[in-house]
């Protein structure tokens, strides 16, 4: 903590030092990150289909190449050789521009993700990160905001009903969840005192932010699924309702761009979650201690980063394998009535906890279990706990009252015999079934207490 | 003041782009094209801010303008009509001249105001960004301009009020839920199991193809109200004939049908 | 770019250029590589087999509901824009900034509560 306090005046700026990175090395790194993303996308589509196959008790694609690994490549080639259809009613310019925007914007954000420690590369000491700036995290949100244009314009320019509805839905969905996402990040900025990704990773040396900002993490994970239009929040392209949503009219490589954009976006939001909450390229706590941190930093960071990234990808696939799509009004209610207010309250709480830690609310300390805690921190946490308890008590009371009312209403209902007409009918509103005597308990013989029968059985 | 090579290159690439976007806003016939032109101009402006080391301001420019304002704008023009083009017909007489006059007045006032502005000695970027760009902005917002900041919240309340007045319709009766509808169906005793689904045939299953009732006649109710109003209900005659042919081929038809077919053949 | 900062935006531009180049190339390549077989029905709007819905005069319209969503989005967006510098500079600013921010959030919350109460957050 003391080293951080000394740096307090400059936490805005990145800790990663790009001073020894000439421009050609940046270009090489940019190409490498681009190839990394492309290969990962090819792999994750195969991975998703195989894992979902397993979850549904079928093998999944296993023909093209070893274990079907080349399936995505084969699909890509097939898409490229398909006819590129531009509908008659389409707005030609925008119909072309939309997939290009969606594809291009998906890539930009990954530039600020720290993927490893500092390494030697072609005789220069450079961080395994393309670049970092004091506003790196905001950049991701801004680029996501521009990326929505791809979807909205695709929906509008198709000149068809389903795409228009899909585009509208998608934009309303993305902007609704972007607020909750942005607010969830504020807690992390409060702890780290910076929006630079390398600075945030550096600040997590002691403790990953998933612990002190656990609620932000939960909200972020929910919103990142909403942002990327993935199941259970894939209302923009819900095939049961809108055929394909915004990309209904797209074919060939234009469609592939939307597809690619969606998967690259998944990687971006997962990488951001890794960076902000899971210590980025830092080794997991147990392993970090081995051999004085010899498995931490440098090229090792890349390994831990990829492991964490793919854990999130598995989570995405798992969600898709287990949850059905939610209804649109339920989805919007979750965003506007649950996520936004609770996240706002959470941010204020974190601000108070931070204020207490930094000594803004008084300097007296309390010794507990051998560690010093500011008195104000304990006071604030006690207040929060009390508030939560009171809220839970009110909620519980309310539930009990409602259940009592329901019981009362039920008691007033008229009793009917379901078999009165010869075959069973369910009760109508205002009626209830006569509870039949439990057939099994009536038929079951009384428990035998006689010890002699045990011997008889032989 | 000197400008680096990279910076001037950026300027000469991005500058024309911003101007092109702004011109598209003015001259594009379709409202959506104008909106996209404006978004381009805004994003390029954000890039200019970043190039001049006002990084926070630049990214906020992209974040708020491209994200929020443009979304609002898109929704509004979609409200007016997705494909609507500018009409040059004057709806109020003399509107154009009045507009020009007011614009000229505003320009005069603005130019007069800006012309009187006095510049202090520049402090330099190094000093402005001493504690980091974001913290510098924070010190200004929460220090020197604290009243403007708090007044913003009042402005936001006004915005919410205005939006509610313009766009919200109060609901007078509670909304009927899925459960309410199903209870209503049971009570009324009509279509208790819901309306019939459209027809699903071996060779056709679009929503405009009605299902068949037991006697072979098409069920009108299985087609959506909208399609019925548009007169787009499909025909089933050809489909039933195909079904009969297939049944004949696989030898799975009732005796009655078989005899009638034999009569036809004869 | 200069002595003040050890980072720069140039790699970001490189990366964006690579991504944009790839996207534009793919979109163009798709149009060139695929076959071209004209078919009138193929170029009509796809509506799962039924005749395409006639387009309304002056284009279709969207529910005004979306206007409210967009407006609320702007309100919260601006709120979070103020929260970011507050969070970053919190350590240097102290208690006064916290009080300011709580006041600000409470005021915006009034707008939020009003919209909720009037039913502006219901979707139907």
Automatic annotation (TrEMBL), chain A:
It comes from the Bacteria. It is a multi-pass membrane protein. Keywords: Cell membrane, Membrane, NAD, Oxidoreductase, Quinone, Translocase, Transmembrane, Transmembrane helix, Ubiquinone. Belongs to the complex I subunit 1 family. The keyword Cell membrane applies. NDH-1 is composed of 14 different subunits. Subunits NuoA, H, J, K, L, M, N constitute the membrane sector of the complex. It is an enzyme of class 7 (translocase). It is found in: Cell membrane; Membrane. Pfam families: NADHdh (PF00146). Coiled coil: none annotated. The chain crosses the membrane at residues 23-47, 93-115, 135-156, 177-195, 207-225, 255-278, 298-318, 338-356, 376-395. Its EC number is 7.1.1.-. It catalyses: a quinone + NADH + 5 H(+)(in) = a quinol + NAD(+) + 4 H(+)(out). This is NADH-quinone oxidoreductase subunit H. NDH-1 shuttles electrons from NADH, via FMN and iron-sulfur (Fe-S) centers, to quinones in the respiratory chain. The immediate electron acceptor for the enzyme in this species is believed to be ubiquinone. Couples the redox reaction to proton translocation (for every two electrons transferred, four hydrogen ions are translocated across the cytoplasmic membrane), and thus conserves the redox energy in a proton gradient. This subunit may bind ubiquinone. InterPro entries: NADH_UbQ_OxRdtase_su1/FPO (IPR001694), NADH_UbQ_OxRdtase_su1_CS (IPR018086). GO terms for molecular function: NADH dehydrogenase (quinone) (non-electrogenic) activity.
Automatic annotation (TrEMBL), chain B:
Keywords: Cell membrane, Membrane, NAD, Oxidoreductase, Quinone, Transmembrane, Transmembrane helix. Its EC number is 7.1.1.-. It comes from the Bacteria. The chain crosses the membrane at residues 6-27, 34-51, 57-80, 100-119, 145-167. It is a multi-pass membrane protein. Gene3D superfamilies: NADH-ubiquinone/plastoquinone oxidoreductase chain 6, subunit NuoJ. It catalyses: a quinone + NADH + 5 H(+)(in) = a quinol + NAD(+) + 4 H(+)(out). Residues 245-266 are annotated as: Disordered. Its main location: membrane. It is found in: Cell membrane. It is an enzyme of class 7 (translocase). One of its GO terms (molecular function) is NADH dehydrogenase (quinone) (non-electrogenic) activity. PANTHER family: NADH-QUINONE OXIDOREDUCTASE SUBUNIT J (PTHR33269:SF19), NADH-UBIQUINONE OXIDOREDUCTASE CHAIN 6 (PTHR33269). Belongs to the complex I subunit 6 family. NDH-1 shuttles electrons from NADH, via FMN and iron-sulfur (Fe-S) centers, to quinones in the respiratory chain. Couples the redox reaction to proton translocation (for every two electrons transferred, four hydrogen ions are translocated across the cytoplasmic membrane), and thus conserves the redox energy in a proton gradient. This is NADH-quinone oxidoreductase subunit J. It comes from Luteipulveratus flavus.
């Amino acid at each position: 903590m003391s080293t951080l306090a000394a740096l307090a005046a400059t936490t805005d700026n990145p800790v990663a030092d790009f001073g020894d990175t000439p421009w050609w090395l940046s270009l090489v790194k940019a190409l490498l990150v681009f190839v990394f993303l492309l290969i990962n996308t090819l792999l994750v589509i195969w991975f998703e289909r195989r894992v979902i196959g397993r979850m549904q008790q079928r093998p999944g694609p296993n023909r093209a190449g070893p274990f079907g690994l080349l399936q995505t490549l084969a699909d890509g080639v097939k898409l490229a050789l398909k006819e590129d259809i531009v509908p008659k009613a389409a707005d030609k310019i925008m119909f072309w521009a939309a997939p290009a925007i969606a594809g291009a914007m998906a890539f930009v954000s990954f530039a600020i993700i720290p993927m490893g420690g500092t390494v030697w590369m072609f005789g220069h000491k450079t961080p395994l990160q393309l670049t970092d700036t004091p506003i790196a995290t905001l950049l991701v949100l801004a680029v996501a905001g521009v990326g929505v244009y791809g979807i909205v314009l695709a929906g509008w320019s198709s000149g068809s009903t389903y795409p228009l509805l899909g585009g509208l839905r998608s934009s309303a969905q993305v902007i609704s969840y972007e607020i909750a996402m942005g607010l969830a990040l504020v807690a992390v900025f409060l702890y780290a005192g910076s929006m630079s990704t390398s600075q945030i990773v550096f600040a997590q040396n002691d403790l990953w932010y998933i612990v002190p900002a656990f609620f932000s993490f939960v909200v972020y994970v929910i919103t990142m699924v909403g942002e990327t239009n993935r199941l259970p929040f894939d209302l923009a392209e819900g095939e049961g309702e809108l055929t394909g949503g915004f990309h209904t009219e797209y074919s060939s490589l234009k469609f592939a761009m939307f597809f690619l954009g969606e998967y690259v976006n998944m990687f971006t939001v997962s990488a951001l979650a890794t960076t902000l909450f899971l210590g980025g390229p830092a080794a997991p706590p147990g392993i970090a201690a081995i051999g004085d941190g010899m498995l931490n930093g440098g090229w090792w960071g890349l390994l831990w980063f990829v492991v964490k990234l793919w854990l999130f990808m598995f989570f995405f696939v798992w969600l898709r394998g287990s949850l059905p799509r939610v209804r649109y009004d339920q989805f919007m209610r979750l965003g506007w009535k649950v996520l936004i207010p609770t996240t706002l309250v959470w941010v204020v709480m974190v601000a108070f906890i931070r204020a207490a830690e930094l000594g803004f609310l008084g300097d007296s300390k309390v010794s507990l279990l051998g560690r010093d805690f500011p008195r104000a921190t304990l006071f604030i946490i006690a207040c929060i706990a009390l508030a939560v308890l009171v809220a839970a008590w009110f909620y519980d009371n309310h539930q009990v009252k409602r259940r009592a009312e329901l019981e009362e209403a039920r008691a007033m209902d008229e009793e009917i015999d379901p078999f009165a007409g010869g075959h069973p009918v369910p009760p109508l509103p205002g009626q209830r079934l006569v509870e039949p005597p439990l057939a099994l308990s009536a038929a079951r013989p009384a428990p035998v207490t006689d010890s002699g029968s045990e011997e008889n059985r032989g | 003041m000197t400008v680096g090579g990279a910076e001037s290159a950026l300027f000469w690439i991005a500058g024309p782009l911003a101007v092109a976007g702004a011109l598209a806003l003015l001259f594009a016939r379709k409202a959506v094209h104008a909106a996209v032109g404006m978004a381009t101009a805004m994003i390029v402006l954000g890039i200019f801010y970043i190039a001049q080391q006002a990084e926070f301001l630049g990214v906020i420019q992209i974040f708020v303008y491209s994200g929020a304002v443009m979304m609002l704008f898109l929704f509004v023009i979609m409200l007016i009509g997705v494909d609507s083009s500018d009409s040059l017909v004057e709806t109020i007489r003399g509107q154009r001249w009045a507009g020009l006059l007011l614009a000229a007045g505003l320009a005069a006032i603005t130019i007069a105001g800006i012309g009187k502005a006095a510049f202090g000695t520049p402090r330099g970027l190094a000093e402005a960004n001493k504690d980091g760009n974001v913290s510098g902005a924070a010190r200004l917002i929460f220090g020197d301009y604290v009243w403007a900041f708090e007044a913003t919240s009042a402005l936001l309340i006004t915005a919410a009020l205005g939006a509610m007045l313009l766009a919200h319709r109060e609901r007078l009766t509670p909304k009927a839920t899925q459960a309410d509808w199903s209870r209503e169906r049971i009570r009324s005793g009509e279509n208790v199991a819901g309306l019939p689904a459209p027809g699903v045939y071996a060779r056709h299953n679009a929503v405009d193809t009605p299902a068949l009732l037991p006697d072979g006649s098409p069920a009108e109710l299985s087609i959506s109200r909208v399609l019925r109003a548009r007169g787009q209900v499909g025909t089933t005659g050809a489909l039933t004939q195909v079904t009969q042919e297939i049944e004949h081929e696989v030898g799975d038809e009732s005796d009655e049908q078989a005899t009638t077919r034999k009569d036809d053949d004869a | 770019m200069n002595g003040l900062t050890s980072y720069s935006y140039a790699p970001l531009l490189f990366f964006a250029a690579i991504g944009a180049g790839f996207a534009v190339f793919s979109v163009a390549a798709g149009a060139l590589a695929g076959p071209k077989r004209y078919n009138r029905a193929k170029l009509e709007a796809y509506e799962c087999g039924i005749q395409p819905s006639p387009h309304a005069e002056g284009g279709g319209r969207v529910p005004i509901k979306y206007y409210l969503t967009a407006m609320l989005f702007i309100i919260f967006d601006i709120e979070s824009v103020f929260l970011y510098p507050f969070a970053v500079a919190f350590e240097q600013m102290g208690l006064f900034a916290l009080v300011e921010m709580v006041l600000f959030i409470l005021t915006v919350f009034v707008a939020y509560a009003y919209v909720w109460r009037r039913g502006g957050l219901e979707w139907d």
